[in-house]
Amino acid sequence: MKSFKLFAALRIISGAFRTSPVTSLYVVCHQPPLDFRRRQLSANYFIRATSVPFHPLKPFSLAIGLSRLYEARLFSIKPFSERAKAILNDAHLNNINIQENNILAFPPWDIPIFNYSNPFSGYVKADTADVIYQQLFSFHRSKYSKYMPVYTDGSKTDERVGCGVVFNDTILSFTLHSSMSVFSAEITAFLWHFSTF
């Protein structure tokens, strides 16, 4: 059913006739056949899964007796890891070393709690005079005068994104890719500051 929907979609997109061969539709629309696409997605997922140190799929290996059973009964579907290994073997990629990438070194559900000082909390910008903010800032700087002040900013217009960092006598400014958000620009400014130390 999915193949029929895909062929219909390819015919509509390319403006081909109903009698056009499916292989021609794949070529015209720059799409690989479904079996190749399935193999590619399976191999990509298997490589990504084996690159994660504690992924449940990584240590899975089929016992010799079970592999013989699957070979004797061709109607039985092998587990995903065995099918993915066969795909990599067919592509002559069975002896590759997959580098581990621990993407969950800090799981998102274990956000570390840290304390920070925000002297401006509790003040609404629309209801507070500029002088109050200047006094709060001066008090905060005098309280932490032993620390080095670092000022960062990120901004975005319709065409450009940029960020800046000012500390000691150093002024850094960078033009970033236009697809970045304001938050990415702010984070980039922090990263540039931390990379200088």
Question: If you had to describe this structure to a student in words, what would you say it looks like?
Answer:
- The protein is mainly alpha-helical.
- Helix content is 44%, strand content 11%.
- It has helices at residues 2-14, 22-28, 34-51, 64-72, 80-90, 130-143, 182-195, and strands at 150-156, 161-167, 170-176.
- It has a three-stranded antiparallel β-sheet, with helices on one face.
- A hairpin with a 4-residue loop joins strand 1 and strand 2.
- Helix 1 (2-14) packs across helix 2 and helix 3 (34-51) crosses helix 5.
- The termini are far apart.
- 4% of the residues are buried.
- The mean pLDDT is 83.
Please tag this protein with its features:
3 strands; 3-stranded antiparallel β-sheet; 7 helices; mainly alpha
Shape: elongated
Question: Helix coverage percent of residues?
Answer: 40-55%
Give the amount of beta strand, in percent. Answer: 5-15%
Straight-line distance between termini: 59 Å
What's the total number of strands?
3
SS element count, helices? 7
Structural class: mainly alpha
Series of H and E elements: HHHHHHEEEH
What's the structural blueprint in terms of helices and strands?
Layout: H1 2-14, H2 22-28, H3 34-51, H4 64-72, H5 80-90, H6 130-143, E1 150-156, E2 161-167, E3 170-176, H7 182-195
Antiparallel strand pairs: 1-2, 2-3
Describe, in short, the structure shown.
The protein has seven helices and three strands, in the order ααααααβββα.
